[in-house]
Amino acid sequence: MSTNSGREGRVKWKRTAAVALPAVIAVGAMGVVMAQGALAASFAVSGTSFQVSSSKLSSKGLASYVQTDRSVDGKGHPVALLGIGEATLADICQSARMDTPVGTVVFKLSAGGPAGQVTAENLVIDGEDLDGDATFGTAQIGRDASTLDQVEGVRGEPGKFGLQAGNIEVLNVRSHAWSATGGNFRLKGMKLSVGLDGKQCF
């Protein structure tokens, strides 16, 4: 990956622009949501979960509770909503596999690494799993989800199970998620590709 800051944000396309166009529109819409500082997914999720990975994630706060995301067909997807206050990632990779008229395509977005860290405020991931080696500050497990106060705007329904913690660090993050939003997302060295021969993050 180039370390030339003047080339940050360049987009690399694979195959045809026609195949890539729906993904570009989706990324643009996500960018608007992130710029507005939206938190939990208040939109209908797609019928496809996606992979998220990072070699290192750290934050000044974490809050989590269980909720259900809905796709357009009304199907529910139980997730652990994970709110991260001030996120710093050494790198980030997001990928999704989807069927198209020309075959199975992998949409992939990556950033960080040699180009510099990725940062986001109030990053919220609706994930169905999360793997990694974690170190937590003071943790509160079993706290009522409606009283969570570690990450701004991340609160669940009264009576629901919740947890939160202070400073956190997670190495070798691997997650399957249904949505991700964040405010002031800064993706240094962003690369986006859509290809019939693409590989997912992990």
Describe the structure.
This protein is mainly beta and 202 residues long. It has one domain (5-195). The chain has one helix at residues 17-35; strands spanning 50-59, 62-70, 76-89, 91-100, 103-112, 118-136, 139-144, 161-165, 168-186, 191-195. Strands 1, 2, 3, 4, 5, 6, 7, 8, 9 and 10 form a ten-stranded antiparallel β-sheet that branches. A hairpin with a 2-residue loop joins strand 4 and strand 5. It is globular and about 50 Å long. The two termini are 19 Å apart. The relative contact order is 0.30. Mean pLDDT is 82; it is low at 5-41.
Summary tags:
10 strands, 202 residues, mainly beta
SSE topology:
Layout (H helix, E strand, L loop, with lengths): L16 H19 L14 E10 L2 E9 L5 E14 L1 E10 L2 E10 L5 E19 L2 E6 L16 E5 L2 E19 L4 E5 L7
Antiparallel strand pairs: 1-3, 1-4, 1-9, 2-3, 2-8, 3-6, 4-5, 5-10, 6-9, 7-8
Sheet-strand content, in percent, reads over 45%
Helix fraction, binned, reads under 10%
Q: What is the count of structural domains?
A: 1
Number of helices: 1
Mean pLDDT: 82
The total count of strands amounts to: 10
Structural class: mainly beta
Could you give a short description of this structure?
The protein has 202 residues and is mainly beta. It has one domain.
